[in-house]
Amino acid sequence: MLRLTKGISKRLRKSYVVNAAYGTKSGHAIDPEAKLRTTDNKEIKAKDYFGKKKVLLVGIPGAFTPVCTADHIPGYIRRYDDFKKKGVDSVACVSVNDSFVMKAWGEHIKGIGKVDFLADHDGSFIKSLDQTVDLSQNGLGSRSGRFAALIEDGRVTKVYQESSPGELKKSSADEVLKDLQK
Fold it and tell me: Average pLDDT by consecutive 10-residue portion of the chain (182 residues)?
């Protein structure tokens, strides 16, 4: 792991740690046996959620965190219909949190019914995507980096990776939509 110093948000600048091979790559197959939880606290295998459809997966460091709550996921909620017009079957948000937090947050930002909020309670799904970041110095522990990925039939076809969990440039809804319009 490498130790880097970057801004987690505009107000918070601390160290965080990322894996040297950080980031999902195009062509990466989703682990079909990986398990996530829905907002109803039902376990779902990745093969059942990501198989045989086109999913726009958005990874975030945490529910109720400033950038995620104010900008990142609300952008996907606002642009949901535009993504559907581009052939995206589902828009999903994943975070290393429990399903109860993801449900409360999804309700708080009025995203339930558009975005599927998926909980990776132990971080194993995020780890399988090489997206783990250590935000312990900020009180968050092991979390997901900030990214968006287009997944078709269980395979990553496009990745929009931020270099810092506090950044929101490449993985914003507007930037991803621009790329999909090409």
Answer: 35 38 72 96 97 96 91 98 98 97 98 98 92 75 84 95 87 97 84
Whether residue 68 lies in the annotated active site? yes
Q: What residues form DSSP beta bridges with 37?
A: 43, 119
From the list 68, 129, 149, 176, the catalytic residue is: 68
For the CA atoms of 160, 68, 101, 85, what is the dihedral angle to 10 degrees? Answer: -60
Question: What is the reported pTM?
Answer: 0.86
State the burial class of residue 65 (Cβ atoms within 10 Å of its Cβ: 0-12, 13-18, 19+): buried
Please, what sign has the CA dihedral across residues 91, 97, 99, 104?
negative
CA distance 35 to 126: 11
Task: Please name which of 79, 112, 11, 94 lies closest in space to residue 46, comparing C-alpha atoms.
Answer: 94
d(CA 166, CA 60): 10
- Round to whole Å and give the CA distance between 90 and 55: 5
- 75's CB contacts (< 8 A; 6+ apart) are 172, 173, 174
